[in-house]
Amino acid sequence: MASTSLATLPSQLASPVRLRRRAALSSASRPHFLLHRATKGGSQCRLAVTCNAQAVAPTSFAQGTPVRPTSILVVGATGTLGRQVVRRALDEGYDVRCLVRPRPAPADFLRDWGATVVNADLSKPETIPATLVGIHAVIDCATGRPEEPIRTVDWEGKVALIQCAKAMGIQKYVFYSIHNCDKHPEVPLMEIKYCTEKFIQDSGLDYIIIRLCGFMQGLIGQYAVPILEEKSVWGTDAPTRIAYMDTQDVARLTFIAMRNEKANKKLMTFAGPRAWTTQEVITLCERLAGQDANVTTVPVAVLRFTRQLTRCFQWTNDVADRLAFSEVLSSDTVFSAPMNETYQLLGVDGNDILSLEKYLQDYFTNILKKLKDLKAQSKQTDIFF
Amino acid sequence: MSLAPSIPSIKVKVGPVSVAPPHRACRSFAVVRSSKAEGPIRRPAAPPLSPPPKTPALSTPPTLSQPPKPAAPPTSSESTPPSPQPKAAVATAPAAALQRPLAGAVTLEYQRKVAKDLQDYFKKKKLDEADQGPFFGFVPKNEISNGRWAMFGFAVGMLTEYATGSDFVQQLKILLSNFGIVDLD
């Protein structure tokens, strides 16, 4: 354990030095390059204006159909957050187009809701431009699947999407990032999220970047369902606290931010009212379910050892990239942020945000009521409905 | 049978900092250790934005941007951050110029035209990436295959020695005798 604790110290010390050095370099060299490029840009702009004013202007008034401001494209619409964004957009009257990867089981529920589904793949950039025709805003909820590399979808696909959005005149680009992604450069997904944030900010698009901490929906499958089915619950002994948030609240705040002019070109962090550890969530589920959980605790050291083992082989490098979050778990950080300024900026009351106790209480109440309606056989005999 | 465990290394392709055509760009490789304490942080570099393709009235072909660079080691990480920002500034001015005659509103026809040009651009970029690099020579694909065959040969040799008791020299003698080159038995 001493060697692992000593090994973590150099990485933590190295990362702020790299960030500070890179910031110094960029700030020092930026005015020179901008002045150098501005002259070339000015000359190109002058030439382009003289040519386009005569050729494009008649066709624009005769044949041009303006893009409607209510048309949005949701990338990654079948995910945990993406489907809630689609649902909220349809409820608010937007024309929603969903970019869905072609797969054997199509996303029929999106069509049943009333959204338009187009087939495209972020790992094949030539399929992206056709889906952006007639789109005013893009909401990017996509991420790679666990069986494919992070870099293919989350970096190369996102870069191609941002390039297409810039070239085709997309008016607004919403990107979901991870909270504290600039403080963990050793985790590949967080590093890619941070670089994508920088790329969006440098591209000149009108953007909204939202950093998220965690979702409540994931806790149902991890802790609530195994407790109800009396199976083993897997948790870690990490002291990391995560302020979970309901994806419906994230979608609601996203559309409030899209319509708010003050939120343009802003980087916001969405966090829930309170931060929870894994053990606290399991204790809360036990209390609400009314029965004890069979908890199996996985130490963080085992996760770290598994990550070091899977890094030695090429075919398990993707597993190692996913297991890199064990570095975040052992760093004893709190995935939460003060939300008062964000609520004031968006004009939202903080009491409207759903808390984890209310969310899990509603879930257990509904699921126990359904079990009672179905007259389900329960192993526990002292349940009083 | 005691074999010293070697630290695994990843070969990372470093793109040139200067803007050059992809088929003429010379590429150098650096060995990056996978251990977090020893190696550099694998930071993907942001590629320059592709400039929006111009209208056919201008009679100029759309300029293609440089392909995205892979992760760079710390020796060239100081030069990587300033390169995407001026190119982004260059890409912004033509986009603003193109949109200004359209009275500030983006039209469907403009988006369709740009979508077709972007599709051709990505297809051409994929073809260029597939064509680069010779079939023979010291390219990363060949070096990886060569290393795997070497590991396979060592494994087969050691497993044969473990199974039959013949050492390396005896295995060579058996091979030469069975092939009829030299009669050593």
UniProtKB/TrEMBL annotation, chain A:
Q: Which GO terms describe its molecular function?
A: translation initiation factor activity
Entry keywords, A to Z = Photosynthesis, Photosystem II, Plastid
Q: Which InterPro entries match?
A: HCF244-like, NAD(P)-bd_dom_sf, NmrA-like
Does the UniProt entry include the keyword Plastid? yes
Q: Which residues cross the membrane?
A: none
Quote the subcellular location field of this record: Plastid
Q: Which domain of life is it from?
A: Eukaryota
Q: Where is the NmrA-like domain?
A: 71-320
* A Pfam family annotated for this UniProt entry: NmrA
| SUPFAM superfamilies, A to Z | NAD(P)-binding Rossmann-fold domains
GO terms for CC? chloroplast; photosystem II
Q: State the Gene Ontology BP annotations.
A: photosystem II assembly
Report whether Plastid shows up as a keyword of the record. Answer: yes
- Indicate what this protein is called per its UniProt record: NAD(P)-binding Rossmann-fold superfamily protein
**Annotated source species:** Zea mays
TrEMBL record, chain B:
- Where is composition skewed (Pro residues) in this entry? 45-55, 64-73
Q: Name one GO cellular component term.
A: membrane
Q: Where in the cell is it found?
A: Membrane
Chief location bin: membrane
Q: Which UniProt keywords apply?
A: Membrane, Transmembrane, Transmembrane helix
Key word Glycoprotein present: no
Q: Where is the composition biased (Low complexity)?
A: 74-95
Membrane topology recorded in Swiss-Prot or TrEMBL? Multi-pass membrane protein
Q: Where is this region: Disordered?
A: 1-20, 31-95
| The UniProt record lists the keyword RNA-binding | no
| The organism's place on the tree of life at top rank | Eukaryota
Write down the PANTHER family for this protein, in alphabetical order: UPF0041 BRAIN PROTEIN 44-RELATED
List the protein's name: Light-harvesting complex-like protein OHP2, chloroplastic
Question: Which organism does this sequence originate in?
Answer: Zea mays (Maize)
